[in-house]
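Researcher: First entry.
Model:
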Amino acid sequence: MSKKIKELELNSLRKTFQGVRDFVLLEPLKLDSAADYTLRKSLREKKVRVKMVKNSFVRKVFSENGMKVETGSGPTLLCWGGDSAKALGTAVEAALKLLRPDPKVPEKVKEKTGIADGEIMTLAQLAKVPTKQEAIGEVVAAILAPGADLAAALAGPGSQLAGILKAIEEKQGEGAAAPAAAG
């Protein structure tokens, strides 16, 4: 590959992956055309894009974006997109299971690594990363929990006292109503 073509390819990759913080690296082992089509189609339905990229280009482009990526050896399929890191991880996991329904069949694609917001993790961990909305919900719940506990502590004894007073009132009302009926 000439220097000019390498530079054009790098510029294209820089433009494509500008701002991408979540992605999965896969290694195609015995990927035939039918399996490749199935993989790409299942990922496309979930808005995940796939591109075969040279390892040295992956390292160079992502190091320029501030992420250290170890690609290992062998060819690399780069998957990115989806609504969140969790959606990306679950989509890729589902696609890999679709390619290998029987565990006795040799792997066609092997997971190299997953990256969520610049952090290296496995594909299983990537599928468990909370989405932005889930993370916000957890923070809001953590903030509101002490206030809810305090409100329950303040309201609890008052409602118990009100229940006791109501029971006493009802007993007195029954006791007063019985002699009036007899008289």
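Researcher: Second entry.
Model:
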Amino acid sequence: MHRRTLLAGLSTVPFLSACGGDSTKFQRYSGPPVTQIQVHKAQREMYLISGDKVVRDYKVALGGNPVGRKQFEGDGRTPEGLYYINRRNPNSAYHLSLGISYPNDQDRVFAESLGRKPGGDIFIHGRAGKDGGRQDWTAGCVAVTDPEIEEIYAMVGTGTPVFLMP
């Protein structure tokens, strides 16, 4: 797929922080609703989709051990399967972040059957200067640039399906 810029509905909204300063971290989006997110791990691509149209796509960084599905806490893998955006963190250590509903019941049962913990706290997040210049560096999350997570944060709501594919 080709990189698309269908962001006519995205605009920066000044936000007064608790310190009294302005921040352009929070944006407003009035374009087509994002109905699903697809992450194609092998291609390091993430697509925001409305219906059957790609609204926006991004290059991503993954967990430091990205091949295969996440199985256990600390394995450095990014999950695979169907999950949902289940929370929004405006105070993320990684600029902004959107929580992914990993682990699901199947992930928990698998890990526990082997006496392990499945892990958790998987997010789509920014970099906040923490990538050290490496391609795949997260603990299992999906990372984009800080300006990109600002767009994504404005465009994606809680409950949006996230398809994480090999």
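Model: Note on the second entry: Confidence is low (pLDDT under 50) at residues 1-8, 11-22.
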